[in-house]
Amino acid sequence: MAARDYGQYGGITRALELIGERWALLIVRDLLVGPRRYGELAVGLPRIPSNILAARLKELQEAGILRRMPRSRVIVYELTPYGRELEPVVLALGAWGFKTLGEPRDEQIITPDSMTMDLRTAFRPLVAAELPSTAYSARVGPAELLIRVDGVRLDVTRGDGPVDLAFTTGADIRRLISGELAPGRAIETGVVEVLHGPGELLDRFASTFHLAA
Amino acid sequence: MAARDYGQYGGITRALELIGERWALLIVRDLLVGPRRYGELAVGLPRIPSNILAARLKELQEAGILRRMPRSRVIVYELTPYGRELEPVVLALGAWGFKTLGEPRDEQIITPDSMTMDLRTAFRPLVAAELPSTAYSARVGPAELLIRVDGVRLDVTRGDGPVDLAFTTGADIRRLISGELAPGRAIETGVVEVLHGPGELLDRFASTFHLAA
DNA sequence: CTGCATCCCGGATGATACTG
DNA sequence: CAGTATCATCCGGGATGCAG
């Protein structure tokens, strides 16, 4: 019922039977950021048809990966413990894909949840542990994120709060994270616009979040 | 040409555009074991239609994941360095799927390459390092494997060689690896048949390869 | 308004036959 | 052996409808 089978008995085929269908892992990716409502998922996955979203949610639920939770008149979807164990998979996949991520195509947008997971992918806890705790406010295209780094811990949420550095940028954040573009030059050339706080903190940001090809 | 896009700009969507199509990651899995010819891949993926295999190979080649290599009159497919970087993804996926792998269904078969990758998934290098080097010959259903463990290194190949323990079993090897079935009981009940060497070495095998739900 | 279900169509997938 | 060609089928995409 979930996915068509591959006729093989093994861990990888089993996994692909559960989350190998189109869109399935992207739903999991967004739910790794936090519980989401049907409409929120639809907004975060702009090209997904509503019937496909409904079908995937049903399949993922039957597979024990997520739960429908009625929460005060609305329904939210949240990962089960087994679903949350997909985080290493999603991070590994994101790291691999990030390495050959080029410039964005015209129809490609940046969503808050995908950006959040990309930041988690690029996060270097061991580097962060050597640096002071820092809070950033980053607007990456349409995504507004509050990024708090404290020791080896990373917390990315939507919304605002007091921060050490606030900046605005676009898809070029990729070149900052990959090391192609130095933080100083990013500010000089206007690729990153600092709204608040000392621009030097962008160096710390680039050290904390780094993933090279 | 490769995959349809998801309309998003990010590492995970990029990865899924490259290897998210049906069968793609299974081809990668088999090539992680070693270079393979077209016919070998077809045998290892019993249900794949030949046109789909041909299409995937072309797409994966264009994506820079594998190469067609003419090798003395025949063509072999092998992963590029970028393709080999998918190993963490495949192992993470395999580990996740293995945890809820049940009993095999009727049409499900065990192939040498899928078994090899499952063993790599379950391999515990830190445990193996504490144990003497050991060579096993395992026949798991139709798959005949030579398994050599030396310190933190694991080498699984087809074919034969001198071994410390030779045994035969079936899909129940999963219960041995998951810890559901103790090695001693596996031998007593005939689930594992020891062909050569001391049966106690099966304990060492189960310690070396372990992955619980 | 949210949370889906239905309908139709195009393109990807699957089975089989065939060829250099 | 290593694919290509053909055709049927099914899934995914887009628009629309509708109930709580």
Compact overview of the structure:
Chain A is α+β, with helices and mostly antiparallel strands.
What can you see in these coordinates?
Two copies of one chain form a homodimer. Helices cover about 45% and strands about 20% of the residues of chain A. Chain A is α+β, with helices and mostly antiparallel strands and about 210 residues long. Chain A has two domains: about 10-85, Arc Repressor Mutant, subunit A (Orthogonal Bundle); about 105-210, SCP2 sterol-binding domain (Nonspecific Lipid-transfer Protein, Chain A, 2-Layer Sandwich). Chain A has a five-stranded mixed β-sheet with strand order 6-5-4-7-8. A three-stranded antiparallel β-sheet of chain A has the order 1-3-2. In chain A, strand 4 (about 135-140) and strand 5 (about 145-150) form a beta hairpin. In chain A, helix 2 (about 25-35) packs across helix 7 and helix 6 crosses helix 7. The longest helix of chain A is centred in the N-terminal third of the chain and has 13 residues, at about 50-60. The model of chain A has no long low-confidence stretch (mean pLDDT about 95). Chains A and B meet through helix 1, helix 2, helix 6 and helix 7 of A and helix 1, helix 2, helix 6 and helix 7 of B. Chains A, B: Keywords: DNA-binding, Transcription, Transcription regulation. Chains A, B: GO terms for molecular function: DNA binding. Chains A, B: This is Helix-turn-helix transcriptional regulator.
